[in-house]
Amino acid sequence: MARRSPSRWRRRVATVFAALALLLVVAGIVTRGRSGGLVMAGLVLLVLGAGAIVVGRARWAFIGSRAAAATVAAVGVAALLLGGATLPRPAPDASSAGAGPTDSSPPSGSRNEVDAAAARAAIDAAPESSALAALAAVEVKGRAPRTGYDRDLFGEGWVDVDRNGCDTRNDVLARDLTDETFKPGTNDCVVATGIVADPYSGRTIPFQRGQDTSDDVQIDHVVALSDAWQKGAQSLDTTQRTAFANDPLNLLAVDGPLNQQKSDGDAATWLPPNRSYRCAYVARQVAVKIRYDLWATQAESDAIATILTSCPNEPLPDGVVVPEPAAPLPPAPAPGAPFENCAAARAAGAAPVHRGQPGYGPHLDGNDDGVGCES
């Protein structure tokens, strides 16, 4: 039997290893972007170099000495460190200072329970004009089913709600971008280029209109449409929902990939990586919910309160104010006790009051016909 050629054996080993290495690198890029690919490449080089150090060489990989193997391993370590340092980090959870939880499961454990209780207490102690105090006006209850949701229920795309000749997307781009230019022949309406100081990442991002570039900067609904649908928007009519989807209060020009990452998350499941913007971000969510009478889940309310306790004077944006609560009705008289006067009877919704009914008294019945406060 003929012996297998060493060079042929080395080529086969090299081919198999290269295929596996390429597969790992591609998987890293698909799941975590370029940083993930760099991590996988570093891991491959580290394993290759370490194996060659043990054996003394790896001729099939053109590594002829332990010194060369150590160099390969060192390059692998450097790639691992660089890739790991640049991997995107998820938003930290609510037990961290100024942060909110990053998954949709409710907080658990005594530490989070204490934090939530402290956050709710902080609402009561907050300055009257602050977003933290305004959070008390946002009702807390469970999320409604997503059943029936459709984007078109909030209007067909971007519309010109303020009738200035430009759709809302271009209005927001013109508002949030600097050094903007406009497409010729659009009466300075369609934004062609510009620069956005992205509040979510803290980076400066260039914008250029085009099929492959427009998505670098996207318009985010700060309170997502699907999330709003599950927290009260189902009871709004089409006009109100269209106004909600095109309200500048609820819209920001931001980094496209981060907007995709956020999806329809609320403050309990997603927060901007830029910590310095989180107070303004959740204050804007509170303002939107107040304007459109939307509610929050308990986890969401606790997350917002936890963030705002680090900035208790953060105001509501765009001049939004908390509506004054309705004046309470005067207390009804004790059983058998008459109303003090007809004004009190009318305020309690009891006028006219008949003889024998709670609240009736002769002093309310001027003509003694048995009916008091009849006019």
Task: Explain what this protein looks like in three dimensions.
With 375 residues, this protein is mainly alpha-helical. It folds into three domains: 6-86, no CATH class; 110-319, no CATH class; 326-375, no CATH class. Helices cover 40% and strands 9% of the residues. The strands form three sheets. Strands 1-2-3 form a three-stranded antiparallel β-sheet, covered by helices on one side. A hairpin with an 8-residue loop joins strand 1 (177-182) and strand 2 (191-197). The longest helix has 50 residues, at 6-55. It is elongated and about 120 Å long. It starts with 5 loop residues before the first helix and ends with a strand.
List the helices and strands and how they pair.
Elements: H1 6-55, H2 66-86, H3 110-125, H4 131-134, H5 168-176, E1 177-182, E2 191-197, E3 204-208, E4 217-221, H6 225-229, H7 238-245, E5 251-255, H8 256-262, H9 278-291, H10 298-308, H11 342-347, E6 353-354, E7 371-372
Antiparallel strand pairs: 1-2, 2-3, 4-5, 6-7
Helix pairs in contact: 1-2, 3-10
Key structural traits:
375 residues, mainly alpha, 3 domains, three-stranded antiparallel β-sheet, 9% strand
